[in-house]
Design brief:
The complex is a heterodimer of chains A (154) and B (785). Helix content of chain A is 32%, strand content 18%. Chain A has five helices and five strands. In chain A, a hairpin with a 2-residue loop joins strand 3 (50-53) and strand 4. The longest helix of chain A has 14 residues, at 104-117. Chain A is globular, with a radius of gyration of 15 Å. Chain B has three domains: 13-132 and 193-245 and 250-283, Aldehyde oxidase/xanthine dehydrogenase, a/b hammerhead (Aldehyde Oxidoreductase, domain 3, Alpha-Beta Complex); 287-460 and 626-780, Aldehyde Oxidoreductase, domain 4, CATH 3.30.365; 476-622, 2-Layer Sandwich (Aldehyde Oxidoreductase, domain 4). Helices cover 29% and strands 24% of the residues of chain B. In chain B, the strands form seven sheets. A seven-stranded mixed β-sheet of chain B has the order 3-5-1-12-9-10-11, sandwiched between helices. In chain B, strands 7-15-14-13-8 form a five-stranded mixed β-sheet. A four-stranded mixed β-sheet of chain B has the order 18-26-27-28, sandwiched between helices. In chain B, helix 15 (502-514) runs parallel beside helix 16, helix 16 (542-569) crosses helix 17 (595-604) and helix 18 crosses helix 19 (736-753). Classes of the chains: A alpha+beta (154), B alpha+beta (785).
Chain lengths: 154, 785
Amino acid sequence: MPNEITVTVNGTEYTDTVEARTLLSDYIRDTLGLTGTHIGCDTSSCGACTVFVDGRSAKSCTLLAVQANGSSVTTVEGLAKDGELSPVQAAFQEEHGLQCGFCTPGMMISVAQLLDRNSSPSEAEIRESISGNICRCTGYHNIVKAAQTAAGSS
Amino acid sequence: MTLVGESVKRIEDPRLITGKGTYVGDVSVPGMLHMQIVRSPHGHANIKNIDVSAANSSPGVVAIFTGADIAEQLGSLPVGWVLDEEMKQPPHPPLATDRVRMVGDAVAVVVADSIAEAVEAAELVDVDYEVLEAVVSAVDAQKSDAPQLHEEAPGNLAFKWEIEGGDWAETVKNADVVVKQDIINQRLIPNAIETRGVVADYNPGTDQITMWTSTQIPHLVRLLFTLVTGHPESKVRIIAPEVGGAFGSKLYLYAEEVIAGIVAKQLARPVRWIESRQENYVATAHGRDHISTAEIAGNKDGEITGINVVVNANLGAYLSTFAPLIPTILFGVMLAGQYKIQNVKCKVLGVFTNTTPTDAYRGAGRPEATYLLERMVDRFAQEIGRDPVTVRRKNMINAFRNGYETPTGVMYDTGNFKGALNKALEHFDYQGFRKEQREARRNGKLLGVGFSSYIEITGMAPSAVASSLGAGAGLWESSTLRVHPTGSVSVYSGTAPSGQGHETSFAQMVASQLGVAMENIEVHHGDTDKQQFGTGTFGSRSLAVGGAALHMSLEKVIAKAKKIAAHQLGVPEKQIELVNGTFIVEDIPESSIGFGDVALEAYLAKNLPPGMEPGLEATSFFDPENFTWPFGTHIAVVELDADTGEVKLKRYVAVDDVGNVMNPMIVDGMVHGGITQGIGQALWENGVYGDDAQLLSGSMLDYALPIAKNLPSYETDRTVTPTKVNPLGAKGAGEAGTIAACPAIVNACVDALNHLGVTHIDMPVTSEKVWRILDEKKKAHPRRK
């Protein structure tokens, strides 16, 4: 059944007709063409699809697009402001917090969410907060360092 | 300018951290159709009938193909490594025709306007199966009453591979001690976070197939696609875009690549297939799965004299592209490890079962060998009551710079094993730990330390050697270095990265040698229409073989540029040298010409040395004479919870020697990731089939991958023993961590329970296993804490 939704994504308002079953992740990727948000599983396990919905991190594969009606969504494409990398993005490059880059968009959003809530997290808090995001390349070591660097710089 | 050996920030990162990378799932071609594959829900069954009538009338369906429709066009998936004439190679049709042999076997393909419509229609394809008895264990499959998978392979045996160096029977006679241990190296499911995927397009005007696929081997995919389908290699273009992790699982020609290419050709429409994670668990190759018995022989003074291993290697339902190589050559020849062991015997039985095929998964054979050997060294030390570090040190081969021949017939290039062990011990107060461990035991706390001293075989590969061992393709690597008229540079490499940062490492090489700024160097890979033939990325080979090929091209370009510079400056060539991007004349620094100006002259061609061709580029193919042999020692410290059995990894120290290092940051990153995959196997990951051949660990909810909160940060360091096998002195770093980690962790767990008489625990060392061991010990000795 088609439904009309209005969603603000990375500051731009979109109005689209979507099927009731359309996932937010598919809407972001296929309808809006914002392919930085990745799909890594079908069990809400990997976290590659994590985005901000009204300032709270959410696995976009676990929300229907219609649930985001009226919301403000930020994806990886919206993290940099005016061509300047966000502190988390800059820290991921600085600390080599990514290799293949596939989990990275979701991982950065989980780190950004943590730092929004806790500006100087401990290593244990960082590790806990990214445990809903799976990375197979880095062993998390440099992601933790990136989170620490971002905390120090913001 | 020298950038070699510096932690240069990656040039891949800006696009990846802003969401601008293009993975195969991000590729969109106008008019693209979507493909859904109907897969067998049974592990073993005859296909009696396939009724597609209901599916055909489902909305949005464009076409449905069954195996019977297109079997001839699809051919049979090939095996790229043939061990001997006896090896059985049963047919492996991309779409099954009459029989399925594993859950996930493809039986039909539905093509529709949208993926949702394709999925809905696929559910309406009615396949009538006659379910057959299945077998999932490599041991059970060899029993006389076991169900048979392939007519061509009686007893389900694909191959029997044996190697013996020295004399095991004599070794046993002369040994003070022979310790025997059954060891399981469990099945693993690689789980690259990007699943596989294919977008295939066909141009009927030119008969050209273009295929984007998430692969480590674009050129080999093209070659094998042509061998299977007969579509000319010159009319197939394979593009590996950003690849979201691979770890060996994207190193083969897969059914879906053949199917997508042929379906696109049949329909003359682009088609897309993106593997779901659920499919990935059954349709992408698994790793490991050995059931082994090992014996280690030695003397009471700690000398190890021999090792004997029998392995039942589970190959799954069909032979994957490199499956025969992994449990044989990459395993058996490595069984002497870092030690002066003179007698090595190994027998490997490669067995078909009703499971997903196994093939190379990070480390590929060497983790299995290292785990087995390092576990047995600890077993031996425990048996004779000696310290595991003392036993290792006593048996280690002394440092060598000009090769060491093992009893298994391979030649290690360079090594300093005790150097790495000593460095690891600089980071870890071993005696202090033993004291702490004794005190902890008195307080009911279970601490353990585990060592793993490994050597691996990388830099795949010397083609002639590989060919003599069964390789179906040359394994050299290639590069083209093209200097543009304005002085910027394009590098074309036959390697195909999946996160290893080749663009950065290769650009560093070019920048440091030519003096061209990093931002003026583009590194291209993964497109068969852009790059000369290349072999791809696997076996920790990309710098040691691909980097060496680039080094050759750099030498050629510099040699030509130098001739042009000398001609322009009017001095003999031997008087000039290239310093930081400028050719300067010896002793007359003011007489110089920039590298960029030389490039321009090469293309203007108005004043070149007589007889010189215009242009400034070179193509090179590097084929090493030997493999490379990285090594190191890792140390793990664990604490086991005496009440719950939970294993907590407290510390992890890794000292690796990967030869010369181009970019330490990148090498450290690969070591971290490799260690984590090894820890995952040691503690959590387990690919489990039920007796009915259903994959019980078939989702991320059921298969426990390492997550951040269960891991510590790692302590990494290096020793540097360059190889002479290639001009860079680099050995390879992609797999070391995975190879080292499993025995370090398991040895630590066993060490923590040593005082209770525990001698071995099979991986994964889960809380449940430890709890059961502790519970049993408590019941046996109710008064002991």
